[in-house]
């Protein structure tokens, strides 16, 4: 069986390290704190937050994913569904549904797990009172952790300022619940929590999630290989962490590829890396082709030029030359569109391609 996990949150034995962050988060959660968690994609924010909540006794976890949310009704419905999921007692569940009557709920059963599911009438819940009724239900619980994942996407809701203002007011009236806001688009998250014209200005403590301690993560990965009598040459896992910029999700993806091109009992060395790269590309080629096809000529040139310089650069003459774009302002525009698409991040004055495999794919396949 494949021992690596990627593209999903991990917990329990699959969760490595981060003891300090877990303690810190649990302390916030126990004291009805408000915290916002930022970090790159696939660094492990969602896993960290849910592992902290999972290992906290006697707490209900309201798990709301706001990815690509587009309207107030959508926000309200997702929150309401999460509240229903957090309630396990059947009698209390009926009480909850009464409280959500405005959303016209329909109860169902998940055929694979047997767990209750809830649906709402399309578009129902678009009024502020509906959101208020969902918060009223949360307020009845002695202790709850409300996790709002991909929170920055709320900025795509029309009239998001009013929605955020209402949310802030409702959160303030919850003395017994803690609120954790997670997000991967750092600038948008910082806008929400640090701009003095935002309703959430200074409304939460900040927790930045970085790499997992290298040695700890390396041992965790090595144990998975060794468990199948696959020995790993010294330094190999360090090299892999390096080429994945210590992003745990990317490291686990690469290890999956390495696993697939090797067999039990084999001694793994750097000689296996080219085949592992081929496997990584096979796993992602389709996705990368779609990305490229959806770029304008200048955006594509900008991305490829940036990849040619190792995936990161400031807006310099050298970058301009590498891209073949004629004018600096056109290049700046193209890069900012790429940033908007989540392909590139801007750190200070530097632009960086987020996905290390895309960098390598662009360089080896398209040059
Ligand atoms: N603590 C961890 N231990 C092991 N792997 C992890 C850990 N955190 C993250 N990962 C890896 O990263 C992937 C993405 O994690 P996730 O929590 O979804 O990140 P994010 O929410 O930051 O995008 C996981 O599927 C897993 O491969
Ligand atoms: Mg996440």
Q: How does this structure look, described?
A:
Strands 2-5-6-1-7 form a five-stranded parallel β-sheet. Helix 6 links the parallel strand 5 (144-149) and strand 6 (177-183). The chain has helices at residues 19-30, 45-54, 72-86, 90-99, 128-139, 160-172, 186-194, 214-226, 236-243, 248-260, 273-293, 297-308, 317-323, 328-340, 356-366; strands at 34-38, 60-65, 105-109, 116-120, 144-149, 177-183, 205-208, 231-232, 267-268, 312-314, 344-347, 350-353. With 367 residues, it is an alpha/beta fold. It has three domains: 18-208, P-loop containing nucleotide triphosphate hydrolases (Rossmann fold), CATH 3.40.50.300; 214-283; 295-366, Winged helix-like DNA-binding domain superfamily/Winged helix DNA-binding domain (Arc Repressor Mutant, subunit A). It is built from 15 helices and twelve strands. The protein is globular, with a radius of gyration of 23 Å. The mean pLDDT is 93. 49% of the residues lie in helices and 14% in strands. The protein binds adenosine-5'-diphosphate (ADP) and magnesium ion. Magnesium ion (MG) is lined by residues 45-46, 149.
């Amino acid at each position: 069986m494949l021992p690596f996990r990627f593209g999903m949150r991990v917990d329990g034995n699959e969760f490595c390290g981060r003891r300090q962050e877990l303690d810190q988060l649990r302390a916030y959660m126990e004291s009805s704190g408000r915290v916002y968690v930022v970090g790159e994609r696939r660094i492990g924010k969602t896993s960290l937050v849910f592992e902290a909540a999972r290992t906290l006794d006697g707490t209900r976890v309201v798990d709301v994913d706001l990815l690509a949310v587009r309207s107030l009704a959508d926000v309200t419905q997702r929150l309401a569904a999460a509240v229903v999921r957090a309630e396990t007692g059947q009698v209390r569940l009926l009480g909850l549904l009464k409280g959500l009557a405005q959303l016209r709920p329909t109860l169902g059963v998940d055929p694979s797990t047997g767990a209750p599911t809830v649906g709402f009438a399309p578009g129902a819940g678009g009024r502020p009172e509906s959101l208020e009724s969902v918060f009223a239900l949360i307020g009845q619980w002695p202790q709850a952790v409300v996790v709002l994942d991909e929170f920055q996407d709320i900025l795509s809701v029309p009239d998001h300022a009013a929605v955020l203002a209402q949310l802030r007011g409702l959160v303030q009236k919850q003395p017994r619940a803690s609120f954790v806001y997670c997000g991967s688009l750092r600038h948008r998250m910082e806008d929400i929590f640090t701009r003095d014209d935002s309703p959430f200005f200074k409304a939460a403590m900040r927790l930045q999630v970085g790499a997992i301690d290298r040695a700890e993560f390396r041992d965790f990965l090595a144990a998975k290989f060794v468990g199948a009598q696959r020995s790993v040459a010294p330094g190999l896992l360090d090299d892999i962490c390096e080429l994945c910029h210590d992003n745990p999700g990317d490291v686990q993806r690469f290890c999956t590829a390495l696993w697939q091109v090797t067999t039990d009992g084999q001694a793994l060395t750097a000689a296996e890396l080219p085949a592992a790269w081929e496997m990584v590309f096979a796993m992602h080629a389709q996705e990368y082709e779609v990305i490229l096809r959806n770029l304008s000529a200048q955006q594509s040139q900008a991305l490829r030029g940036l990849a040619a310089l190792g995936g990161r650069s400031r807006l310099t003459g050298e970058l301009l030359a590498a891209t073949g774009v004629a004018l600096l302002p056109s290049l700046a525009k193209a890069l900012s569109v790429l940033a908007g698409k989540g392909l590139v991040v801007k750190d200070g004055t530097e632009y960086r391609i987020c996905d290390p495999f895309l960098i390598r794919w662009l360089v080896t396949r398209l040059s």
